[in-house]
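Review this fold:
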Amino acid sequence: MMTTTQRLLDLAAAAPASHDEDLALLLREANKLYQDGLQDLRRGVAQRFDGLPTEELMLAANAAGMPCDASQDRDEVILLLALAEWEMTPAAMAYAEMAEDAARRGVCLIPEE
């Protein structure tokens, strides 16, 4: 069974040779995998920090470079912590590079108006 990371790396490797609709399809699949990977990690972060006061979570998020404030609830701070960790994974980096390259080539998930 292929992992999220493996599949995202495969999609990123295939993207440079793809054009227009094919590239858009790869980007859509990669985006779904990116979101799924982030949510999986968010669940793990929530378990890891279970019982830690929200104030301490906020300090950890700020230290990780993800500014937050008192208006954010615990779930939002957990998501920020997960995002900080996720963005450093090979899967997330491959997706970001793929999305940036696709955008330079005029392909993105949000249609122009």
Notes: The chain is about 70% helix and 0% strand. The helical segments are 4-14, 20-48, 54-63, 74-86, 90-104. Residues 1 and 88 are 23 Å apart (CA to CA). The chain has a mean pLDDT of 92.
